């Protein structure tokens, strides 16, 4: 009898481990729709952006059009003031685009306490026979995360040009092969506003896109998912694609989805459109529930409080059982 109670007690204590471990690791991609100085002048917009971006361990921001380099620093300081539990840093690409007057940057905002940057690579877009295929060449970044089951992973961002979606998506396949070889890794995720739907990617053209036809690639945001804010549109423009079964297994099943911030933060359509005309898309990577996270947390006050409460509860429980 006593032994079974002891076992029960042990079970309760072990349960603490589950509660306290870092529970998720979120990767997001968000087209900010003309993010520049004018958005920084709208407090409500900046607050919503801070809320959205601080949900994620890593966010890929697109359509950052900050020629005077003032908007992004403002956003970063607001983010760091909004969420003081973490520290956020930005890794910014060059200003990309064919026209002198219209350029965009890819920006990765990430938590410095959960993830580190271990490599970056601006795709040169000089592939023979297909030179300058992209209007915004991928700015590829490799990350190392402390808590995820996959230790290192690579993110390939892309915001396609609507008129050239088919060609650019197909060319992303070449980028993927190149990056896999260069960094000797299969843990690669492609993400962003692919414009991969509605008028921009015709059904009949899909068979010509290797990024779609290769069975080893997993399109996690499925067709018919609405990633657009306007109630009058429903298109799956924004996507997350994972390379290979091994990496796909390290993703939390069914976790990929658009984040409907309009509904979540109870905004009107116009208020939401002030922020962006896209929803962010997101996915969770599996995290380790290990002894090490147990020990890491052991020092924290909340852990101690929880531990003591739990122990008291268990003692009471055992006592009650004895009395019965
Ligand atoms: C589409 O791609 C071609 C060549 O790759 C380029 O010349 C053209 O400007 C692109 N269209 C747009 C709208 O960027």
UniProtKB/TrEMBL annotation:
PROSITE patterns: DNASE_I_1
CDD domains linked: DNase1
Statement: the UniProt record of this protein carries the keyword Nuclease: yes
Disulfide bridge positions per record: 198-235
Domain Endonuclease/exonuclease/phosphatase, residue spans: 29-278
One Gene Ontology CC term in the entry: endoplasmic reticulum
UniProt name for this protein: Deoxyribonuclease-1-like 1
Cellular compartment(s): Endoplasmic reticulum
Signal peptide location: 1-21
One biological process term in Gene Ontology: DNA catabolic process
The organism's taxonomic lineage, starting at the top: Eukaryota, Metazoa, Chordata, Craniata, Vertebrata
This protein's UniProt keywords: Disulfide bond, Endonuclease, Endoplasmic reticulum, Glycoprotein, Hydrolase, Nuclease, Signal
Principal localisation: endoplasmic reticulum
GO molecular function terms listed in the Swiss-Prot or TrEMBL record: deoxyribonuclease I activity; DNA binding
Lineage: superkingdom: Eukaryota
One Pfam family named in its UniProt record: Exo_endo_phos
Catalytic site positions: 104, 159
Record-stated family: Belongs to the DNase I family.
